[in-house]
Amino acid sequence: MSSHQLHCDACARPVRIMVTAPHALDGPPNMHDAEFICLDVGEQCTGGRCPLGKVEPDAMVSRLIRNGLPLDGMKSVFTLCPACDSQAEMVLYGDGHAACTVCGTPARWVLRHAEPLT
Fold first, then answer.
1. What is the DSSP string of 36-99?
2. How far is residue 26 CA from its own chain's centroid?
3. Percent of the chain with pLDDT over 90
4. Which of 18, 42, 65, 118 is the most buried (most CB within 10 A)?
């Protein structure tokens, strides 16, 4: 993997990205097999596709988790994953989305209300 800093047109600022190594199956590696992973994906990512990684935020967070990259600066909650039924840390990002750190499956995080401490 290699790290870079590029300008993201969607959030109008420089972002940190990782580029995975191309997969070499039956021949030389092909750069088209490499994945761009934005390390700064988060609450600001509410649109359709990332202009750098060419995937929506759900897939970008799954790439972070699958590649074991740090989830620094991302908010999380410990809860039951609706996909794998594990008690797991769920990473919260753009527009009420969450992803399980065990299976990487995206989900919707819904907080109905907060109650005062008594």
1. EEETT-STT--SSS-TTTSS-HHHHHHHHHHTT---TT--EEEEE-TTT--EEEEEEETTTEEE
2. 30
3. 14
4. 42
Distance CA 34, CA 78 (A): 31
Q: Amino acid identity of 55?
A: V
Name the token pair of 101: 């750190």
Amino acid at 88: A
Residue 22 has pLDDT above 90, yes or no: no
What pTM did the predictor assign?
A: 0.72
Strands 36-38 and 76-80: unpaired
Per residue in 83-98, pLDDT (tens digit) is: 999 999 998 887 788 8
| CB hemisphere CA count around 65 (13 angstroms) | 21
**What is the rounded CA–CA span in Å between residue 46 and residue 32?**
26
Instruction: With CA atoms as reference, report the closest residue to 61 among 1, 11, 101.
Output: 101
Question: Are 84 and 72 spatial neighbours (Cβ–Cβ below 8 Å)?
Answer: no
